[in-house]
Amino acid sequence: MMLFLMDTWDSVRGFISTGGDVLLLVAFVLFLMWVLMLERYFYLNIAFPRFRKNMIAQWDARDETSSWHAHRIREAWISQAKQQLNARMLIIKTLVAICPMIGLLGTVTGMINVFDVMAVQGTSNARAMAAGISTATMPTMAGMVAALSGVFFSTRLDARLKVSLEKLADSLSYKE
Predict the structure, then answer these.
(1) Is residue 87, in this structure, part of any structural domain at all?
(2) Which of 11, 19, 123, 128 could be disulfide-bonded to 117 (CB atoms 3.0-4.6 Å)?
């Protein structure tokens, strides 16, 4: 097991050294994005059902639910639930959108390295230019992969949040 972890760590270090320092920024943004998405999944599956059950119990305990005042209370509660469900979703979507841009930053820094090598050694040293091209392409690929994983899971999460909110709204029915 320890050998596997050491091999994995060496592979990650090699990948980061091939792609340059921008890969560390991509990794940080990816880590932050996934921590926030996992927190939202936790809230949706663990905390929100308790909140929903409590809200439905409070609504069912009301004597009247058909007046104008009761409708406004219901709307306020649904709005509060929507706010709690959608907390941090804008940050997640922003991080997803930023991932490809950070990858492009890596492309620019890698190409600057290529031009530096060309300026110092000329165009005859293909091996020296290859390192800069590798530094240019790896962050772009990493940023795109990070964004794709984020797009897929944040879209699914967003859909589940909307369904949960609709179910809550349907559960707060009017009594005549």
Answers:
(1) yes
(2) 128
- Exposure b/e, 158-176, CB count within 10 A at least 16 = b: beebeebbeebeeebeeee
Domain count of the fold of the chain = 1
Please report whether residue 59 resides in a domain. Answer: no
C-alpha closest to that of 60 among 72, 45, 50, 70: 70
Q: In whole angstroms, how large is the CA radius of gyration of the chain?
A: 25
Contacts of 143 (CB under 8 A, 6+ apart): 26, 99, 100, 101, 102, 103, 104, 106
Measured CA angle at 148 (ends 144, 150), to 5 deg:
115
Each residue of 100-149: pLDDT tens digit? 999 999 888 888 877 887 777 777 777 777 777 877 888 899 999 999 99
Domain span holding position 157: 23-43+68-171
Is 0.90 topped by the overall pTM?
no
